[in-house]
Amino acid sequence: MTDRGFVCTNDSRHEKVRQRSLKENPVYGLDHLEVASPDQKTLHVYFIGRAPCHLRKENLVIEGGLRVRDIRVSKSEMLRNGDSEEPYLKVEVDQMGDFSNYVLKVVDLDEEGKPTDQPMKNFDPCYASLLFTFKASCPSRLDCRPPDTCKAPKFTDPEINYLAKDYSSFRQIILDRLALILPDWKERHVPDLGIALVEILAYAGDHLSYYQDAVATEAYLNTARQRISVRRHARLVDYRMHEGCNSRTWVFLETSDDLPKGEQIYYLRDIYFLTRPSEGRFMEGAVLKEEDLRDIPLSSYEVFEPLEDNDFSVHESDINLESLTSRLSKEDYGKKEYKRKKHKDVLSYHILQRLSDEVRNLMRSFVLTGSSREELQTALSRDLNRIMQSSLYNSDLFPDGDLRDGTKELIDEALRGDELVRFNRMLLEDAFEGISKKGVLRIWEAHNCISIYTWNRRECCLPRGATRATLLDDWLEEKDEIIPEASSSVQSKKIQTSGPSTTAARRRRLNLKKGDYLLFEEVKGPRTGEKADADPSKRVVVRLTRVTPLVDPIFDQPVLLVEWSRKDALPFSLCISAVGRPKECELIQEIIVARGNLVLVDHGRWIKKEALGSVPEKERVRSCTAERLPADTAIEAAIFQPRLSKGPLTFCQPLPPGLNGMDILNQDLRQALPCLELYANAGDAKSGGTSAANKEVRWRCVSDLLGSSRLDRHFVVEMDNYGRANLRFGDDELGRKPEPGMEFSATYRVGNGAAGNIGRNMISYMVWRRGQTSGITIKPRNPLPASGGTAAESMEDAKLLAPYAFHKDLQRAITSEDYARLAERHPGVQRAAATRRWTGSWHEVVVAIDPLGSVEADEELLNDVQGYLFKYRRMGQDLIVKRAGYVPLRLEMTVCAKPEYLRGHVEAELAEVFSNRILQDGSLGFFHPDNLSFGDGIYMSRIIAAAQSVTGVESVTVEKLQKLFENTNQELETGVLQLGPLEIARLDNDYNFPENGKLVIKVLGGR
Q1: Cα–Cα distance for residue pair 961/983, rounded to 1 Å
Q2: CATH 2.40.30.10: does it fit domain 810-883?
Q3: CB atoms within 10 A of CB 235
Q4: N or C: which terminal CB in the chain sees fewer CB atoms within 10 Å?
Q5: Count of CB atoms within 10 A of residue 725's CB?
Q6: Measuring CA to CA, which residue among 252, 269, 267 is closest to residue 661?
Q7: pTM across the whole model
Q8: Alpha carbon distances (Å) from 880 to 672, 833, 846, 863, 945
Q9: Is 743 within 8 Å of 681 (Cβ atoms)?
Q10: Are 337 and 350 in contact (CB under 8 A)?
C-alpha cells in the first residue's frame, strides 16, 4: 500500500478486503512482499485473503529508485508452500535495486498488452501497490518502524523572567505577558476581573515557588526544617532519632482478700490506674469504673497501664504437674504410637507424643510414685518451649469454643518467631489448666505487709550490697482458703527443717516464688519509731532469684529465705530494728517491711478503634485500544498517609524478660516503638465482600522499612514538628502497599515524655474496664516515683550527632584497641586488653580477658570469646584469647598514729581501706578488682593519700612497693609500679593464699 496522503493507526479496510476476496465477485489486494534471494532478484508477493488466478507478469510494474531505475519483471509464477498455506506469487526481476524505496503495482493492460496507469480490474485501489525496498534484509542499527508523521505542533517558548520568585514579581510578568498578547486590555484597577485573575495566578505561583524551595531545603540534613526529613536523613547514616519514651513505676496493691478467688479470673488488661484528679471528687483509694470518669477532664489526671513482659516461654513455676498429668491415664505414658480414634483426649495425647522419651519416663514415674518432681518440671518446661517453636494449631485439636477471643484473632495470621511462640503459649493456656495463664491479676492479703525475720536477734539491719533476707511466714489453718494453683510449686517444695517431718505437708501463707518482685520499705523512723519519720527514699524493689522455705526448729516458725541477684544488691542499708531515743530506750522493731502484690505500670491511656479512613484510588486516565474497545485500566492505590487525631503518641521499649527490679524502669530510647495496633479490612470495602473477606488483618509497626519485604504488612510512624503521628506504608518493594478501598482503624496509646514522671504516692485509684470485684477492697499506691519519661530528641541534637554516629558502631577490628572494645561487648567479659605482636612470619593479636563475676576466666568463656571475635578479626592476623595476667604485689608501709588513737584500731582501719572487698559504706577497697584494670600502674602517691585519709593517721611512709617474688625495679624512686599492657595488679592479703599478694602495715605512735 503506497502513500495515500494521510496516516491511520487502525486499518479496518484491510479486513474488509480479506472478506471480499472470498466471495463470488472477489476484490483482491496486496498484503506484503519479501526479498527472497541473496542476489535480491527474487520477490515473494503475498495477497490479502485469496490470491488472483490469472495474474501475468505484464500486470506487474516496479517504479521508483534513484540510482537503479526501470527494473522489469522477467518471470512470475504462483506457488504454494503447503496444502494449508495461501498461495503467493514468485516474481523474478532483471536487476536488483538500490537503497531507495520502490513501488510494486498491479495494473491493467491496454489493447496492445502494454501496462497502463490504472489498477488491475478486481483489485482494491488502496491495495493495488506495495512500497518496499530491496535492502530490507541488510543490517541496520536504526528502527525499521516508520516515523510518526502526526506529531504535535511545536510552540516557541515565550520570553519569561525566570528570576521571578515571589508574588509581586509573578504579578508583574503576568501583566507583561498579557500586554503582549492582549494589547487592547489596558485596565489596571484592582476591582477589574482581569486583575483579580492575575493576582490569583500570582498567589498560586508564589505558593508553588515556596514549595519548590522547601523541597530543595529538605534535601539535605543541615538545611532540613521538617522533623520527618531529619529523621530519614539520620537513618541513612545509621542513626536512629528517638521520639522519647514514657515513664514507668511500681504500684503496690493493698488488698483485703486474695485474687483470683474461686473460678473468677481477672486479667491485668482489665484494669488501669489514675493519679488524683484535680477536682478530687473520689475518696482516697476508691475502686472505679470507666463510667465514673466520663465527666472528669482528661487533662486533670494521668493514666498508668499495667505492663506485661514479652517472655512467653514456659518456666518451671508455670507448671502445675498434678493438674497437667491428671488428663491422661497412667497407661498412656508408656505408649510410643498414637492412634487418635482410640483416645478421648486428643490434644493431651498429641502433646505427649511430641515430648522426649526422657520426659515421658519422668511423667510416668511421677504419676505412679509421685517422685522426680523437680527433674520433671525442668525437663517438661524445656520440651514445651521446644514444641512452641513450630506451629501447634489444628482445628481438630483446639476447638474454637474452648479458645478466648484474643487467641481466635491470631488463628488466620501467618505468625513467625516470637509471635508464633506467643500464640502457642495462648493455645496451651486455653487448653490446659496446669499451665499458668500470663497476665492474670494475682494478689494475696498475706503479701500486704511481710515482716523481716531476724531469728530472735536484736538491732539488726540489711547492709548495703545485701542479696538475701529471711521473711516471716505462717502456717495456714484448716479453715483458711486453699492456696491458688499458681503457687503450688513453692508450696509443695520439701521444707528444710530439723523439726518433725509432719510439718512438711502443712501449707504456708506466703506465696512468693522465683521471678516475683518484692518491695523493701522503711515504714518507721529508726530513732523515734514514728511513721511520719520514715525516710521515703529508702525503698527498693528486687527480683527474687531463689525462694527457699525454711522452719525455725526452736519455735516451729515457718520462714522464707529469699535471694536476689547482685544487680539488685541493696544500694543502701536498711535498719530492721534499733533502740530508740533515751530516756525510754525502747526497742523499735519492724522498721522496714517487705511487700508483694507489685504491678509494673507505665504512663499512657488507650484510644480504641479510631477510624483512619480508606485507601484512595489513584486517578485513572482511561483510553481506547480501538473503536469500541476500551483499554484495560489498572486500579492502583494513591498515597495514603493517615494521621492520628490525638497525641502525644506513647513510645516505649518492649519489656525484655528477667530484668531486675530497678533496671526494669530504664528504657533504651533508640529501641522504643510506638504503642499502636493497626488493623485493616482484608477485602475491598467497595466491592461489598462477605464478612469473611473483610476480616481485619493486623499491620505491624517497625522502626523503618529498610528490612521489610514486599509481602510484609509493615508500617512506620513518623512524628512531625507539631508532635502529630503520621503513618507511612510500603511501596510493594520495601514493605507491602495497601490495596485501594482498605479501611484502616487504629488502637493506640497517648501519653509520653516527662509528663508521666510523677512523684511517689501519686497513684490513688484503680479503674476496672470490665467486671469488678465484690466484697474486696484494693488500695493502690506507687511507693517509688515514676521515672524514665523523656522528651523527644530535638532536631538540633540529631543534626549534631547523626553525621558521626557510625564511628561508635565498631564493625571490624583493625587496631588492638578495637579487639579490646569488641571483647568487652561479650556479656561474660568485664574488661579486656589486647596487643599485637610479630611472630616472624605474620602478626598475631593476643586478647586478655577479665571475666565478669569471677577472678579467672574458664576455658568455655575463652573459647566463646574467641569465636565471637573471629568474625571481626582482620585477615592475615592470628587471634589468641587468654586469661588476664594477675601480678601479686608486696606492699609495706610505716604509719605514725596520733597520740589519742589506739594503734590496733588504726591498723584495722588501714587493712580495711587497702582490702579487695566492698566496704561497709559501699565504697570499694583500694585493691578491689573494679578499681584496677589492664596496665594500670600502682602510684605511691595514691597509696599515701588513701592511708592519710584514715582517721587517726598522722604520717605515712611506704617502705616497699614491688612485685611479689621479684626484685625491686626502682619503684620507690620513680613513685610508680609499672605493669604490662595485659597485666592486672592483685593484692588480696589473704593468709590462706599468700601467693596472691601481701600487705604489711607497721603502726607507730598512738597508744
Answers
A1: 16
A2: no
A3: 16
A4: C
A5: 24
A6: 252
A7: 0.74
A8: 38, 12, 5, 10, 39
A9: yes
A10: no
Comparing CA positions, the residue from 120, 137, 133 lying closest to residue 66 is 133
Choose among 425, 433, 471, 466: nearest CA to 314.
425
- For residue 288, the surrounding DSSP H or E stretch is strand 287-289
Q: CA-CA distances (angstroms) from residue 187 to 75, 172, 881, 1001? A: 80, 14, 91, 108
Question: What is the signed CA dihedral for 117, 121, 122, 128, rounded to 10 degrees?
Answer: -20
- The separation between the first and the last C-alpha atoms of the chain, rounded to the nearest angstrom, is 132
Count Cβ atoms below 10 Å from residue 219 Cβ, excluding itself.
Answer: 11
Mind spelling out the 3-state secondary structure of 600-665? EEEECEEEEEEEEEECCECCCCCCEEECCEECCCCCCECCCCCECCCCCECEECCCCCCCCCCHHH
Q: Pairing mode, if any, of strands 829-838 and 938-939?
A: unpaired
Please identify which residue in the block is written with the cell numbers 507505665. 602
Secondary structure (DSSP) of 483-501:
PPGGGHHHHTSPPB-SS-G
| Per-residue cell: 138 | 541488510
Using one digit for the tens of pLDDT, what is the confidence trace for 199-231?
A: 999 999 999 999 999 999 999 999 999 999 999
Q: How far apart are CA 426 and CA 411, in angstroms?
A: 11
Q: Residues in the chain, how many?
A: 1007
Specify the pLDDT at position 235: 92
Q: Which of 274, 764, 252, 317 is nearest to 520 (CA)?
A: 252
With 0-12 / 13-18 / 19 or more C-beta atoms within 10 angstroms meaning exposed / middle / buried, residue 863 is: exposed
Strand order in the sheet with 605-614: 605-614, 743-750, 676-681, 696-701, 714-719, 725-729
Burial class (CB in 10 A: 0-12, 13-18, 19+), 569: middle
Rounded to 5 degrees, φ, ψ at 48 are -85, 115
With CA atoms as reference, report the closest residue to 446 among 508, 509, 506: 509
Measured CA to CA, the distance from residue 810 to residue 822 in angstroms comes to: 8
Alpha-carbon dihedral angle through residues 798, 802, 804, 806, given to the nearest 10 degrees: 140
The three three-digit cell numbers of residue 864, written as one number: 566463646
| Nearest residue to 877 (alpha-carbon basis) of 813, 966, 833 | 813
| Element at 235 (helix H, strand E) | helix 227-236
Amino acid at 682: A
Residue type, 611: A
Lowest mean pLDDT among 45-49, 362-366, 604-608: 362-366
Give SS3 for 75.
Answer: strand
Query: How crowded is the C-beta side of 64, counted as CA atoms within 13 Å?
Result: 18
Given a contact cutoff of 8 angstroms between Cβ atoms, the answer to whether 694 and 681 are in contact is: yes
What's the mean pLDDT when you consider all of the chain? 84
Beta bridge partners of 544: 564
Residue found by looking up cell 498508668 in the block:
304
SS3 401: helix
Give the residue from 323, 340, 337, 325 showing the smallest Cα distance to 396: 340
CB 572 within 8 A of CB 483: no
Going by their DSSP bridges, the two strands 778-781 and 248-255 should be labelled as antiparallel
Half-sphere exposure in the Cβ direction for 679 (13 Å, CA)? 16
Q: Looking at 675-742, which runs of residues are DSSP E strands?
A: 676-681, 696-701, 714-719, 725-729
| Segment 859-875 mean pLDDT | 89
Residue 816 backbone class (left: φ over 0; alpha: ψ -120 to 50; beta: rest): alpha
Domain boundaries 13-132, corresponding CATH code: 2.60.40.1220
Cell numbers at residue 493, please?
A: 517444695
- CA–CA separation, 881 vs 503, rounded Å? 53
* Candidate from 51-55, 393-397, 534-538, 586-590 with smallest mean pLDDT: 393-397
